[in-house]
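Entry for the shared binder. Reason: the reviewer on the internal report wants the predicted structure included alongside the sequence.
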Amino acid sequence: MKNDELRELSIPELHAKMEELRIELFNLRFQKAKNLLDRPDRIRIVRRSIARIITIIKEKEQKA
């Protein structure tokens, strides 16, 4: 998701999205360990998305 789309979500929705991404990251790491990973760059993309969501959550909490 893009930053603009993430910023439109509420804090509970952001937490849910982050949980989805953490599960995906967990599965990607298993695939990497078994050498089944088709796109190794996907791990980096998911990690950065999680970091983006954490940043947006903290910004919203400071504003509130």
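Summary line for the report: Helices lie at 3-8, 11-33, 41-63.
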